[in-house]
Specification:
Layout (H helix, E strand, L loop, with lengths): L19 H8 L3 H14 L3 H10 L10 H38 L6 H10 L10 H35 L2 H10 L9 H12 L12 H10 L14 H16 L12 H7 L2 H8 L3 H12 L5 H7 L10 H15 L7 H19 L1
Helix pairs in contact: 1-3, 2-3, 4-5, 8-10, 14-16, 15-16
């Protein structure tokens, strides 16, 4: 079979081609075109045939990959630098912890972790030991936190003690009778929320759902309540509603005055369940916004009671108002996620309610 001879020999200026199409095309190229292809090949670092292939397919040629040895050396260099930075960061961290440990040795009762956190929060130079002023500031902060924890613990103990004193057998039986018809007036979710929001007031924090452990802890708190049967007499759904409302009211006895009404609707209003349901239907931002609008004029006792988490109706005492204020203020305090505006509103509501009692 005859083939057309190439106009240029393989050893001439034509470089190696990458495809049969490129080789066939090179035969008919003009010298000037060949020179341009050679220029592109030199700039791109590829063979002339590769340039032709790229032009035929409409793609730009990629620069030639460096030899395998060079790529391996570059990769190893990156790894070496990464390991160097990691080792350097580890040495820096170790040095900073050593500084914290030395500072802690001069401050009895203070740990290196506390010092490290203190430096980070106060944006101090972590590569330098604490100054005398810094050490004193840390000790003052720890002492303030200790007093705050003690005050909160004392307040909680006082609240639980008052709740237990109010949770007499007669009152608990009255609550049990009042919530008997409650399943016809509310839902399981609303009743569960009513109970869950009261758990923190007696130190049962971190609960976000109803389970058997909650009932056990509540019965340990008020042992007499074990006599009430919430496992029969109705559907499982109704029994859970009655049980949640019973304990939700019982845990709020410390802030309620008088005895529980026998009528279901009156009892739920007495313990603030209706207010609780309406608040749950709105998000916190909307609730604060609406409350602020009402307080722009002259708010009534209902708004002040709601702000402090007190029942909408019923008699109040100065002690009850102050206890409710302390519990609400802990949630609205700027250091605990609240705002100064919320704290101001809570203080004003407390003052107005106390002044109303003194008139």
């Amino acid at each position: 079979m005859n083939t057309m001879p190439s106009k240029r020999s393989a050893g001439a200026r034509f470089g190696p081609s990458d495809s049969p199409g490129a080789r066939r095309l090179e035969v008919w190229l003009q010298p000037r075109t060949i020179e341009l292809l050679d220029t592109l090949a030199q700039q791109w670092g590829v063979a002339r045939g590769k340039v032709i292939d790229q032009l035929l397919t409409g793609c730009s040629a990629s620069p030639a990959q460096p030899p395998r040895a060079e790529r391996h050396a570059a990769k190893q260099d990156r790894l070496d630098r990464s390991e160097f930075y990691d080792r350097d960061a580890a040495r820096l961290q170790a040095r900073r912890w050593e500084i914290c440990r030395k500072d802690a040795s001069d401050l009895p009762g203070v740990t290196a972790k506390q010092i490290n956190i203190f430096k980070i929060e106060q944006k101090m130079n972590r590569d330098q030991p604490l100054s005398d002023a810094g050490k004193q500031a840390l000790l003052d902060l720890i002492e303030h936190h200790r007093r705050q924890v003690q005050e909160e613990a004392a307040l909680l103990a006082e609240h639980i003690q008052r709740m237990k004193q109010r949770a007499t057998p007669d009152r608990l039986r009255a609550i049990d009778g009042a919530v008997e018809s409650a399943p016809q007036m509310t839902t399981r979710d609303a009743a569960a929320r009513f109970l869950l929001t009261a758990l923190a007031t007696v130190g049962l924090n971190g609960q976000d759902r109803i389970d058997e452990r909650i009932w056990s802890e509540l019965e340990d708190l008020i042992p007499y309540a074990k006599v009430f049967d919430f496992t029969s007499g109705g559907s499982p759904e109704d029994n859970v509603i009655r049980r949640c409302l019973f304990w939700g009211v019982a845990l709020r006895l410390a802030t309620l005055e008088g005895d529980p009404p026998q009528d279901t609707a009156e009892c739920l209003a007495w313990c603030g369940f209706a207010v609780h349901q309406s608040e749950q239907a709105r998000n916190t931002a909307q609730w604060w916004s609406e409350l602020t609008d009402r307080m722009a004029g002259r708010p009534g006792s209902e708004a002040d009671r709601r702000l402090l988490g007190l029942p909408a109706e019923g008699n109040l005492t100065v002690q009850t108002i102050k206890a409710a204020y302390k519990l609400t203020a802990r949630k609205a305090h700027p250091d605990l996620g609240g705002t100064a505006e919320q704290m101001t509103q809570i203080i004003q509501a407390k003052d107005r309610l106390i002044q109303a009692l003194e008139q």
